[in-house]
Design brief:
- The structure is a homodimer.
- The first copy, chain A, is built from 13 helices and 14 strands.
- Chain A is of the alpha/beta class.
- Chain A has a seven-stranded mixed sheet, with helices on both faces. A three-stranded antiparallel sheet of chain A has the order 11-14-13, covered by helices on one side.
- In chain A, helix 7 links the parallel strand 8 and strand 9.
- The longest helix of chain A has 21 residues.
- At the A-B interface, helix 1, helix 2, helix 3, helix 4 and helix 10 of A face helix 1, helix 2, helix 3, helix 4 and helix 10 of B.
């Protein structure tokens, strides 16, 4: 490909940790001509997006909007809006993205404490309760589906503990929302965000976030301004709410795409979506074990949307991934951090979570290993 | 439109301050299936985008990338990467977007000074020299094309003055880049950003930025971390550079679109692009004056890509704009801040800057006024 040639890419079967494959109708809708970011036609799209997002977050939260950036922008927005310098904050990390939360929180002036669990494991409510008894926190951040390890963190008891200690619960649902059962309101998550390009199967560039009333009050009662103007939800909500005060130019076409991607999810129905992810993940896990491969996470903690599998002894991690991509147009990912070179990461997210994709991957792995 | 219906928008003639209209081939290219953000196919797209961006910024700067957010994210990135708490910073503002720069700078811990000029006017190098003699600054920020006033700020002498005082020059070229002659390297701008949705005629969601070697050194020599992890260019450049270290998931399809939009500009050729903007802006200005309307900015400071025109006495600003939109599908914008209710803002940016659009607008205004 040169600068003088049209974009001409081989289509990939995307079984990495995201982006996932995007349904053709979503891509087509994204290519609708642009209208202005204050056009009544676009304001209607914004209203639809908010309502559809509430359906997938399973929440009544009024402040439910897509942040105009990728998942990491959502992560940063989820932190900087609710933390002021000197605030005690607890970040629980058992993988790469938990560590990223801690890194971002460390840049807010928070009085930051971290609680670590080994990669591939989860936190218990007891651990977190002990930590909160020893050190008060205003906000506790934790990852629901850790993309780097393939662990799904149980959250029900942790939510009770966090709220019993008067803290806000911030949940990273980037890899899990729209793939496994999850309800913001049932859980009582105060702040929760995801990325458009994971189980929602919209192209990357938006980070849906939802904020409960308690956290909205914390935002309203701040003593200092939010350190990021771009991610300041007190300004963003005036644009996305009924005030319609201009803040920034929303990514119009990505919002077209998000509306359509959310409609795809809602038309299938969340229960059916979860059942499909459950069925294809069982198929993948069984198939990998039939190939003699070892899964990294015990069945009770295994995340259906992202599977980690041990790279067998004597096998070159990178060579296998390169051959999958170049010979079969299949993308999976290598390990991050503590799992680098040790694990492959196989995503089954949204539109990618289909049996034919699992069969293609298993067939390709059988030939390559 | 309801949630149950397909997106179905009337196409608009976009003559506001951005987004501008997007060529069909750019929209079509954006709808290319997603590939992974670390796929060699996407890495090649990133390299093309960087090279094409250097052509339109007219710079050799290695650090030339699209920030994964809209123009305001570019603005924030241009500030937070180069300012540390206590740094003396001078922001020159003569309009809404200059004021926004000051607002964002005020959240960095900078020792902020501002210099104001009346809306509709520009700064002289003498003014800025006097200010810098009185108060040292590490960085001076100024807007090239102020979208709220329609003023094009002359910058050559100011660049000399700023550099003579040892400061970095930060230029907001959101409304001007790709519409009027401008060269980052000839001017000596140390930091410069724009938005994808203005004269480059790509959908909104990316903010190209370019950083010269002096500013790169300032970034490298920081004592403190950049307050925004998402916008931290020392991390972003490791992903966009040869290291290819994962930072965040780039908005893949928007980068497809940006590559194509930049190719459109480069195929036409910058000189031809500028000549087209010059011709249609002359046509617009003459046509507005023939209708008896008054332009807000004197000819020597008038920005070709964004024209401000006085709302005639006795005419309801909002009614005219609403009728333009609903009866003729033409978008123009109202005034912001000091110009609210007093001026209309008419953009001629990129693919929108065509004579047939000017004729449609003039014809519609003739009927409505």
């Amino acid at each position: 490909m040169s600068l003088y040639t049209d974009l001409d890419t081989a289509p990939r079967i995307l079984l990495g940790p995201g982006p996932s494959m995007v349904p053709p109708r979503v891509l087509r809708t994204m290519a609708t001509p642009v209208v202005g970011h204050m056009d009544p036609q676009f304001l209607a799209v914004m209203d639809d997006v908010k309502e559809l997002l509430r359906s997938v977050f399973v929440t009544q939260n009024e402040l439910t909007v897509p942040v105009s950036g990728t998942g990491s922008a959502g992560m940063e927005a989820a932190l900087v809006n609710f933390i002021e310098p000197g605030d005690p904050v607890l970040v629980c990390h058992a993988g790469y993205f938990g560590e990223r939360i801690a890194e971002i929180a460390s840049r807010t002036g928070a009085e930051l404490r971290t609680l670590a669990a080994p990669w591939g494991e989860a936190f218990s409510a007891t651990q977190i309760a002990a930590e909160l008894r020893a050190h008060r926190a205003k906000l506790v951040a934790i990852v629901h589906g850790e993309t780097s390890t393939g662990v799904q963190q149980p959250l029900e008891e942790i939510s009770e503990v966090v709220h019993a200690h008067g803290a806000l619960l911030l949940v990273d649902a980037v890899a899990s929302l729209g793939g496994v059962p999850f309800s913001v309101d049932t859980l009582g998550a105060d702040i929760c965000y995801t990325g458009s390009q994971k189980c929602l199967s919209c192209p990357p560039g938006l980070a849906p976030i939802t904020v409960g009333s308690h956290a909205v009050n914390v935002l309203a009662d701040r003593h200092s301004k939010v350190q990021s103007w771009y991610l300041d939800l007190s300004l963003v909500r005036k644009y996305w709410g009924t005030d319609r005060v201009y803040h920034h130019t929303a990514p119009v076409n990505l919002n077209y795409a998000l509306r359509e991607a959310l409609r795809v999810v809602c038309e299938e129905g969340l229960e059916n979506v979860f059942a499909r992810h459950a069925a294809v993940s069982e198929m993948l896990w069984q198939g990998l074990e039939d190939l003699g491969l070892t899964l990294m996470v015990s069945p009770d903690l295994r995340l259906r949307t992202l599977t980690t599998v041990r790279v067998p002894d004597g096998v070159d991690d990178a060579v296998v991934r390169r051959r999958l991509l170049h010979e079969f147009n299949i993308e999976i990912a290598g390990g991050l951090g503590a799992f680098r070179g040790k694990a492959w990461r196989i995503g089954l997210m949204g539109h990618s979570a289909r049996p034919e994709n699992v069969l293609a991957l298993l067939g390709a792995l059988e030939r390559l290993l």
